[in-house]
Specification:
This protein has 14 helices and 15 strands. With 426 residues, the protein is α/β, with parallel strands linked by helices. Helix 1 links the parallel strand 1 (10-14) and strand 2 (52-55).
Length: 426
């Protein structure tokens, strides 16, 4: 480290759900549908002076062997609708919605986010995601037409058009994905452009983020990996005329607190076993192996068969990477550490976790930011809706004492919280 001023930490709250993070069996777990759940977590985040509240979204219930995955979220309300309601009960907290650039249209999306930005006083953010999943596409007129190689081509053109609409002028565009002529039916949003978030980790995704995003939602689990990712993405910004501080890197992380480090470690192990029960472990194996493993013993060794590439046994989940390569890597980890199937899934699927006393967790978070492994964090609690309460009550005050996190909001918009300028008109 150098003698530079302390970097300020950015914090966001993720509403858990469609993943293996939520512990459904905990007595404190509540509804994923009732507005009171969303309101509690959002108000807790605002009480903690967080930058924004983040909603993920899936467009179709996942299936395994033609049956709806039992642990999926049924009935989660649409993200922008939820955030519009939260705008009425919060005053400063940013409101970030995940909306798919593959199955929406630029004008319609630009209008929805401009509406949220106006109604919230400049607090809207769009998490741009893409899909080449024909299964998800069956819910839409166009179906799963988009080749995987075209995902970012469409997304880049989509974001460009949305920003042109937000600028308020006449839009005339003819490109590979869109042929549009028109004008947004709203004034320019208070932020100029709602904040854009992106989560791709491939080389193509990193380049897309460097060109278009204000925040990148990353997934690197160690200080060294975080530093390498941070340096790589920030290096790419200059090619687009951007400065390093114009893109915030915020990995999704979990945390577990205890009165002692030992207590926190024990509690973290209990939480991970609750998050990855036998059924969830089998679902993860089926996602990689692409075969029906309903009769597989989760407490036994990994499957001996090789994965089936391009399998349709699991529908609605993205298969990340080469299944054969993933299976080989998992087998090596299982052999080295003598892990059962379930133990292996627990080992390889956990997000970056900060575990210890509140003081230890505050120190770890600060070290990541001061050593350029991140600009902040998107916290993914394991409980809905009270999973963030202890962090706000116990860790945030310690970060404030260290001088690395705000005690009050300095502005009213999400761009104010992130230190991002209002974009000029194009």
């Amino acid at each position: 480290m150098t003698d530079r001023p302390l970097k300020q930490i950015h914090l966001a709250a993720h509403f858990p759900g469609v993943n293996n993070t939520t512990v459904w069996t905990d007595p404190a777990s509540r509804s994923q549908i009732e507005f009171s759940s969303f309101r509690h977590l959002a108000e807790t985040a605002e009480r903690g002076r967080f930058d924004f509240f983040f909603l993920a979204e899936g467009l179709r219930l996942r299936e395994v062997n033609g049956l709806i995955h039992d642990l999926d979220v049924v009935g989660r309300p649409e993200s922008i609708t939820v955030l519009g309601a939260l705008a009425a009960v919060t005053t400063h907290l940013g409101l970030a919605a995940t909306v798919n650039a593959t199955f929406n249209e630029p004008y319609e999306l630009a209008r929805r986010f401009a509406s949220l930005d106006h109604l919230s006083g400049g607090r809207a953010a769009w998490n741009v995601v893409t899909s080449s999943d024909a299964f998800t596409g069956e819910n839409f007129r166009r179906g799963g037409f988009l080749d995987r190689a075209d995902r970012y081509t469409r997304a880049a053109e989509f974001v460009q058009l949305a920003r042109e609409f937000w600028d308020g002028g006449q839009v005339r565009h003819s490109g590979p994905q869109f042929d549009v002529e028109g004008r947004l039916s709203l004034p320019r949003p208070p932020q100029g452009h709602p904040v854009v978030i992106q989560a791709g980790d491939s080389d193509e995704g990193r380049e897309f983020a460097a060109a278009t995003a204000d925040i990148i939602f990353s997934r690197h689990s160690t200080l060294t990996a975080g530093q390498a990712f941070h340096a790589d993405v920030k290096r790419r910004l200059a090619a687009y005329g951007r400065k390093p501080d114009e893109l915030k890197i915020m990995p999704g992380v979990t945390y577990v607190l205890g009165d002692t480090d030992e207590e926190a470690t024990e509690r973290a192990a209990e939480i991970r076993r609750a998050q990855v029960g036998p059924q969830t472990a089998i679902a993860y194996l089926e996602q990689v192996w692409g075969i029906d493993l309903s009769d597989h013993d989760p407490d036994g060794p990994l499957p001996t068969a090789d994965p089936v590439v391009d399998s349709t046994v699991v529908q609605g989940r993205t298969r990340i990477g080469d299944p054969l390569e993933i299976a080989a890597r998992w087998r090596a980890v299982a052999a080295e550490k003598r892990l059962s199937s379930r133990e292996l899934v627990i080992e390889v699927t956990g997000r970056q976790s900060f575990i210890g006393t509140p003081a230890a967790v505050a120190e770890q978070l600060d070290a990541y930011v001061q050593n350029d492994a991140a600009d902040g964090f998107i916290l993914v609690p394991h409980l809905t809706p009270g999973g963030l309460d202890d962090f706000v009550d116990q860790v945030v005050p310690l970060l404030q004492e260290r001088g690395v996190f705000r005690t009050e909001y300095a502005g009213t918009t999400l761009r104010d919280h992130l230190g991002l300028p209002v974009p000029g008109r194009r």
